[in-house]
Amino acid sequence: MNIARRLVVISMLLFMGIGTASAYDISVVTAGKRLYYNVDNDKGTAVVTYYGDSNNYWPTNRQPADSLFIPSTITYQGRTYVVNAIGDHAFSNCTRIKDVIVGDSITSIGDYAFQYCSLLRSITLAPSGITRIGTSAFESCIALKKIPLPQTLNSLGEGVFAVCRQLDSIVLPNTVTRLPNHLFYACNSLMTLTIPASLTSIGDFTFRECNRLRTIDLPNSVTHIGNSAFVECSNLQYIYLPESLDTIKAYTFRNCTHLTHVRIPASVYRIESNAFANASNLNDIVVLNTQPPTLGNNTFLDVDRAISVHIPCGTYDQYSAAEGWNEFTHLIEYPGYKLQYYAADTSMGTVEVVVEPTCTDSTAVVRAVPFRNHQFTHWNDGDTTNPRTVDVTIDSILIAHFIYVEPIGIDPLPTLETTITSLPGLIQIAGAEGLDINIFDISGRLCSTIRSAASPQRIAVDRPGVYLVQIAGRPARKVVVLPAR
């Protein structure tokens, strides 16, 4: 075959995609592992890439395994290159990598760079240098527990940590301003999240199915929270929304079945459809806008309409006439300061408000209630008083601490299966036959004592308001009684 004819054949083969061209320019062995790079000879830089092609990035027999070190520089044929990026799909589907150390010259981790690295358990990044982590870079790294993020990071792609099922904590640096869509989707172990004051936006489905996340306090710099951002966060208990938010988007807290308290700031004027749908344990809503926010369809679907809804002083008439809000039967005017209260460890006890501040009296009484075989020790400020009386004239937080106490062989009191219901002018108690019942007003004054002779037992009160019901010496429970008809 003559030379001209041979060149024509080679050109045809290359045009047809048949030939020896590879996805990489060079390969270099570092720390016993052969890695592949694309290089820019003009700039003297190299980007880590994959071995194969877009149909099979890493054939099984070529995949790196165990520990992997990505160097800051490489030398090839006598020339040194600075490694400045991990490219798109660089280690996609490398299912045998367990640990990665990234050199301090790297400034970017590309899209899907470590996607489906199912054994990857740790990755060490330099404390500064990296500014970007691309879309789904660590998606489905189901063994990854922690990843310290560099202080220079300012760009996160969508779904970076999606389905990282073992990721239990993360600290977002102050350089991050935006959490994109699906960022922590299905991070089922995520419990501790540090959010910087620089954050301005949370995308759609960002925390979807983070079902071990219990509390989150967003900075006032956040102006946007996307649709379904916290949907199906089934263990989320408290959410205090930022003062700069104007809309709670559709489905934001749908199926947050352990959410008990929510504080809606004065800046919110619209709450969209299904925002709190199926938040079936919600028992306290604080709304700070003097004009009732507009509600969408099914905003509070399956939320008990008898729960306490705290509204600004002097706004009862507006809320009782506003569509959706007028379905709630316990609208309570409230001075509006933020009182946060919860247990440091919710497996040991809980915290309840015995006396709430009112528009005429800023005094609140908060009680720490230990669970069986536990004991209250102190509040977060060191005070050991319980119940605790506080003057709520500023935003306040009370966290109760408990310890485990070994049982000493004394049988605990049996659990009471009692139900307390409010009726106009009456308190109705079921399941307390033969037990002593004490009724206290909100100031703690004993109003009446009876021994229940029937079920249900109905007890008349002198006037409408908040009462405390104590049965057989157990902790008192609060009930709001409406005026008699």
Walk me through what this model shows.
The termini are far apart. Among the domains are: 20-167, Leucine-rich repeat, LRR (right-handed beta-alpha superhelix) (Alpha-Beta Horseshoe); 339-404, no CATH class; 419-481, Sandwich (Immunoglobulin-like), CATH 2.60.40. The chain has two helices and 38 strands. Helix content is 4%, strand content 35%. The strands form ten sheets. Strands 1, 2, 3, 5, 6, 8, 10 and 11 form an eight-stranded mixed β-sheet that branches. The chain is mostly beta strands.
CATH-scheme architecture of one domain: Alpha-Beta Horseshoe
Shape: elongated
Count of DSSP E strands? 38
Please report the first level of CATH classification, the CATH class of one domain: Alpha Beta
Described by strand count, sense and barrel closure, the largest sheet is: 8 strands, mixed
Strand-pairing-aware structural class: mainly beta
Average of the residue pLDDT scores: 88
Low-confidence stretches: 1-21, 409-413
Number of helices: 2
CATH structural fold name of one domain? Leucine-rich repeat, LRR (right-handed beta-alpha superhelix)
Cα Rg: 30 Å
Gap from first CA to last CA? 108 Å
What is the CATH H-level superfamily of one domain?
Ribonuclease Inhibitor
In helices, the fraction of residues equals: under 10%
Strand content: 25-35%
